[in-house]
Task: structure prediction
Amino acid sequence: MGRYTGPVCRICRRAGEKLYLKGEKCLTPKCPLERRRYAPGQHGMRRRKLSEYGIRLREKQKARFTYGLMEEQFRRFFEEAERMPGVTGENLLQLLERRLDNVVYRLGFADSRRQARQLVTHGHFALNGRRNNVPSTLVEPGDVISVVNSSRDLDYFQQRREYLKTYTPPNWLSLDPENLTGRVLYLPSRAEIDTRVNEALIVEYYSR
Result:
């Protein structure tokens, strides 16, 4: 199955809450969820009671679409989280946060994870001084993410530099707006991850 290429606002409407997949648009009255707070489709306005399985599936899909992963990728992250010491659900979210495209988004270089993934894929970023175009690369504490020299003079990054001067990244990241550079200070705890999902339901879904 290929990556979802349809209107992402339908995903938010299906989930019943904003997943912030469209960046700034999600913060404006133009957000479709502000005007149509019901599921998409012909029968979207009908109230349907979800089964226990449906509740867990919806929570898993919410997390998967939030981070922009296909099912096979997401499952691999879950299996890796299971092998790690500690709480599986928290391990899963930490792994997802460590993806390079997510860190680019968290540093404010992009308005959405989808845009961040595109910027990484097009080779605009370096990890520890080496160009990296793999969005799924996992960062470590001490890693430095920077815009490559050949991209710094692009209009997009010039405008972004001005925006970043007033932007505050999460505590586990540091940002140098003038040099378009960020650093991973440490790995985030669950309390520092603002993704609105119940990770325990995801664990229950895969453990059924």
